[in-house]
Amino acid sequence: MPPEAVPWVADVGTDDDPFEEFNRAMGAGRIENPYPDFAELRRNGGVVRADVRRLMGLDDAAAVGHLDMPEIFTVSTYEALCAILRDGTTFSSRGYAEFMGPVLGHTILEMDEPEHHAYRKVLTNAFSRKAMARWETDVVAPVVHAYLDAFVDAGRADLVRQLTLPVPMTVIADLLGLPREDLTRFHRLGIELIGVSVNWERGLAASQKLRDYFATLLEERRRDPGSDLISVLSMAEHDGLRLTDEEIFSFLRLLLPAGAETTYRSSSNLLVGLLNAPDQLDAVRSDRSLVPQTIEEGLRWEPPLLTIMRTVSRDTELEGVHLPKDAVVVVNLGSANHDESRWEDPERFDIFRPQQPNLAFAYGPHLCLGMHLARMEMAVILNAVLDRLPGLRLDPDARPPAITGMTFRAPAGVPVVFDT
Ligand code: HEM
Question: Is the pLDDT score of 6 beyond 60?
Fold first, then answer.
């Protein structure tokens, strides 16, 4: 991607910026550190009845009025989360259909078994390790370096606006083979879609526009298939099962919140952790074999997505607490990743702590389908920053970055200076 084609950076941060609006409604700038509250929840037991509005940091203006409010429980310990996430029969994903279905369509996220398993099999090949190796060299590295080219001589940058925010969305656009000139519009529609809880009508409109846009592309790719993800999905098959057009559109829409939103936040959070621990930054700069564990620690310490949800499909009991049929369970990934029974001094960012799996990508049948892509993107971003921005440090003249937000967490900006 030529540097002059670096798209849409100018589009965010304007008065009419749906990204800002979305971030605010998700609690950005308001909720700095929810982890002490999570520790309190864990002290009260792994499974606790909860007030979901408070937990999700949704303000009253957020358009959640269409949700019925059943009994709600939060689950906060590592063990309790694993018990829930591994049992997709008792803890159904169908609840997503109610508030995401109208916008995304019927996606893998809301499917239960056996439908989920069959559908996931069809998709898995598209995200194979072979695909990942090709995507790294053909797509991710060129995109990351193009964004870096645009500011590498300036000696200062906001690593969110200029790097971590645009990269994952551009990567998805490139994986889909979208024409470069469509990128600004695609990104805007993506943010409007993700921001549906802020503006319901606008979210629905964006969903329809994306569907129509994808429909034109799908027709083209059927006539003249390439190696892009739309062509791959149009031909994907497992045991005779193929995706319908509507299933393809729904999956493509899901890629925006599931793939771009999360990865931008996880990369930003990782940079905050490292920039606030210069000795660890130096260590990983001089020994790149530390990159994988650095990424895992970033994901553990500040997972971009704090909570997911499940619906209880039959009366059951967990850790001595009765969970009635149809209760909603808020599955607190952030809290589980700070469970002191598993990680010593869990609030500390420490790339040298003993490595063991965390729950940032969830667990069980719905384990993130894009986790290899996310990890690869984070590694490419981190390596490129370490290679190309010598003397990288937080900008001493700017406000230090703060990771804020509930449900989704990230810093609004990461202002840095570096040597040129
Ligand atoms: C750091 C980045 C990411 C994080 C933290 C993350 C996290 C998650 C989590 C927690 C789930 C489970 C949701 C649930 O069961 O309720 C999930 C599912 C999913 N993710 Fe990711 N994700 C990331 C990146 C990606 C990327 C890059 C893609 C694809 C481009 C992706 C695609 C998906 C899909 C399709 C699912 C649904 C899987 C299923 O239901 O079987 N994710 N992700």
Answer: no
